[in-house]
Design brief:
Length: 574
C-alpha cells in the first residue's frame, strides 16, 4: 500500500524534493543551538571572549531568520503539495466512479461515497503533506542529536538511547488497535453522511408526513453509534498518548539522573552537561512530533485504504476488440436472455429465457403487472447491467461487442423519475448534445412544448432549476427531459413510465410531445396507463412468468385475455 501511495508524489516530485531539503536544513539548524551554548559556557564566558560570544549570537540570529523563511516555505508549499495530491486522487476517484457498473451504486449509499471523496481525501492530503515532512525532519533531528550526544560522551548517549526501543515497542503494540478503531469511525461517519444526505433530499416528504420525529430518531441512532466508535478511538489514543508521554518523561528523567552522575564524577563538564540536556530537549521534540503525527498517519492511511477499496472495484468491462459504429438504425433483438439482480450475494431472477424482436423504427409497448421485468428490459438495452445468459443484439451486433459509448449515444431515455442537474434549463437540455447551438436547444424545447414557458421566466433559459429540478413542476421537468432527448436525436428511444407521475391534463400535453419524439425511431414504451400505448405497433403483455400476450391494441382486446382485463379495469368508469 505504501508503494501505491508514493506514486501520487511523482507528478509533484520537484516541489516535494525542495520541501524535504528545507526540512533537512531546519533539522540541521536545530542541532546548532546546543553546540553554541556549550561553547559559550565552556569558553567564551570563562575566557571573557565578548567578540566571539556576540559573533555566535549574531550567527544564531541569522540562522533563525533563515529558518523562519524555510518554515514559511514548508507551511505554504508543503500544504500545496498535499492539496494537489488530494486533487489528483479526487479526479482519479471521480473518473473511476463514472466507469463503475450500476450495481455498485445499487449497493452503496451516496452519502458514504461522498464521505470517501471529501473527508477521507482531506485526511490523505494532510498525511501527504505532514507525514513525510515531519517524519523526515524528526528522524534527521534524532540521528543528528544522537551523533552530537555521542561526541559529548558516547557512554551517556548509549544509556539514553537504550530507553528508545521501549517507546518503539509501545507504538507497535498499540498500532493495530488504533487502525481498527480509526477504520470503525470512518465507516460510521460515512453512514451518518448517507443518513443526512437522504434526510435532506427527502425533507419535503418527511414534512408532508409530519415525520420529523422519526427522522430525528433515525439520525440519533447513527449519531450514538458515531459517539461510541469515536469514544473507542479516543480510548485507544489516550492509551497511546499517555504511554508515549510517560516514555518521554522517563527519558528526560534518565538524562538528568545519568547526566548528573557523569557530571558529579567529572566525566563531563558544565558546558557539556548543559548541551547534553539541550540535545535531549531537541531529541524529545521530534519524538513528540512523531507521537502527534501518529494519529494523522492512522487517519490518512485509513482514508487511503478506503480510497483504494473503491479504486479496486472493477469498472464496466469492455471487450478489447469492441467496435464503435458511426450510427445504428435501431433493430433490437433479445435472444433467450436471462437476468437477475444480485442482492448480498443472492440472485433473484427477473427474466428467464426471454426472447423478443423489435424492428427498426417500430414502437413496442411493454405492459402488465409490476415485477414482470419491463423496467429491467429498459436497463438491459443500454447495457446498464450485464445479462446472465443469452444475447441482446442491435442491428445484428451483440451489444457486448459494441463500445458502451457507441451504444448509449444511439439511445435516448425518458423516465418517470426525471433527474435534472443543479444548473440552468439551458444546461439541462444541452445534456442531449453539449456542442448544440442556442438555436438547436430552442428548437428542441419547442418540440417538447416548453419553449413558451421558459420564455415567460425572468431569466429564460438561464433560469436555475434547483437541486434535482425542485423549482420546476413535474410536467415541466418531464418536458425538459423530452427536449433533452429531442436534442440528442437518437435512433432508439426508451420511455419508461414517462407520464405515469403526471395528472391527466399534463399527461395529454406531454403525450403529444412524446408522439413527435417517437416518430421514425425504434421506441420501447413501458406504461401502466394503457391509453398511452393504444397506437403502438405491437403491445407485449408481461408477467413474472414472461411474455403472456402480444399484438396490436385491437388484437389483444379481441383475444379477451390479460390485456383486455387490464384495459376494462382502467376504463370501467368511462
Amino acid at each position: 500500500m505504501l508503494r501505491r501511495f508514493v506514486k501520487y508524489y511523482r507528478p509533484h516530485k520537484k516541489l516535494f524534493a525542495i520541501d524535504m531539503i528545507c526540512a533537512f536544513i531546519i533539522s540541521v539548524f536545530n542541532l546548532v543551538y546546543p553546540y553554541i551554548t556549550k561553547e559559550i559556557i565552556n569558553n567564551y564566558v570563562p575566557d571573557k571572549l565578548l567578540y566571539l560570544m556576540l559573533a555566535a549570537a549574531g550567527f544564531l540570529l541569522g540562522l533563525y531568520i533563515v529558518k523562519a523563511g524555510l518554515n514559511y516555505f514548508l507551511q505554504y508549499w508543503g500544504h500545496v503539495v498535499g492539496v494537489r495530491i488530494q486533487a489528483d486522487m479526487r479526479s482519479e476517484l471521480f473518473n473511476h466512479l463514472q466507469k463503475l457498473p450500476f450495481s455498485y451504486f445499487d449497493d452503496n449509499k451516496t452519502g458514504v461515497i461522498m464521505s470517501r471523496m471529501t473527508n477521507d481525501l482531506f485526511e490523505i492530503s494532510e498525511l501527504a503533506h505532514h507525514g513525510p515532512e515531519d517524519v523526515f525532519l524528526s528522524l534527521v533531528t534524532m540521528i543528528g542529536a544522537f551523533i552530537m550526544l555521542s561526541l559529548i560522551n558516547v557512554y551517556l548517549a548509549l544509556i539514553v538511547f537504550a530507553v528508545v526501543p521501549f517507546g518503539v515497542l509501545i507504538s507497535v503494540l498499540l498500532r493495530r488497535r488504533m487502525m481498527r478503531a480509526f477504520g470503525q469511525v470512518r465507516v460510521v461517519q460515512g453512514e451518518i453522511n448517507a443518513d443526512i444526505e437522504s434526510a435532506v433530499s427527502g425533507m419535503r416528504v418527511s414534512r408532508a408526513y409530519s415525520a420529523q420525529a422519526h427522522e430525528s430518531e433515525k439520525f440519533e441512532v447513527g449519531n450514538k453509534k458515531f459517539v461510541k466508535a469515536k469514544s473507542r478511538q479516543y480510548k485507544v489514543m489516550g492509551e497511546f498518548g499517555s504511554s508515549m508521554n510517560f516514555f518521554m518523561d522517563f527519558l528526560y528523567f534518565a538524562v538528568l539522573l545519568s547526566g548528573g552522575l557523569f557530571f558529579y564524577y567529572d566525566l563531563i563538564n558544565a558546558g557539556e552537561f548543559t548541551a547534553f540536556v539541550l540535545y535531549i530537549t531537541t531529541l524529545i521534540t521530534p519524538i513528540r512530533t512523531l507521537i502527534n503525527i501518529f494519529e494523522q498517519i492512522q487517519e490518512g492511511m485509513t482514508g487511503f485504504k478506503r480510497f483504494c477499496e473503491i479504486m479496486d472495484v472493477p469498472p464496466e468491462e469492455e471487450r478489447p476488440d469492441a467496435i464503435c459504429p458511426e450510427s445504428l438504425s435501431g433493430e433490437i433483438e433479445f435472444d433467450n436472455v436471462s437476468f437477475g439482480y444480485k442482492n448480498d450475494g443472492d440472485e433473484n431472477a427477473v427474466i428467464s429465457n426471454f426472447s423478443m424482436k423489435i424492428p427498426a423504427g417500430k414502437t413496442i409497448a411493454l405492459v402488465g403487472p409490476s415485477g414482470g421485468g419491463k423496467t429491467t428490459i429498459c436497463h438491459l438495452i443500454p447495457r446498464f447491467y450485464e445479462i446472465d445468459g443469452g444475447k441482446i443484439t442491435v442491428d445484428g451486433y451483440d451489444i457486448r461487442d459494441l463500445q458502451r459509448v457507441a451504444l448509449r449515444k444511439n439511445i435516448g431515455i425518458v423516465q418517470q423519475d426525471v433527474f435534472l442537474f443543479n444548473g440552468t434549463i439551458r444546461e439541462n437540455i444541452a445534456y442531449g448534445d453539449f456542442f448544440a447551438t442556442d438555436e438547436e436547444i430552442i428548437a428542441a424545447a419547442k418540440k417538447a412544448n416548453i419553449h413558451d414557458y421558459v420564455c415567460s421566466l425572468p431569466q429564460g433559459y438561464d433560469t436555475c432549476v434547483g437541486e434535482r429540478g425542485v423549482k420546476l413542476s413535474g410536467g415541466q421537468k418531464q418536458r425538459v427531459s423530452i427536449a433533452r432527448a429531442f436534442l440528442k436525436n437518437p435512433p432508439i428511444l426508451i420511455l419508461d413510465e414517462a407520464t405515469s407521475a403526471l395528472d391527466n391534463a399534463t399527461e395529454m400535453q406531454i403525450q403529444d410531445a412524446l408522439v413527435k419524439l417517437s416518430e421514425g425511431r425504434t421506441t420501447v414504451v413501458v406504461a401502466h396507463r394503457l391509453s398511452t400505448v393504444k397506437n403502438a405497433d405491437e403491445i407485449i403483455v408481461m408477467t413474472s412468468e414472461g411474455i403472456k400476450e402480444r399484438g396490436t391494441h385491437e388484437e389483444l382486446l379481441a383475444a379477451g385475455g390479460i390485456y383486455k382485463e387490464l384495459y376494462e379495469y382502467q376504463f370501467k368508469g368511462a
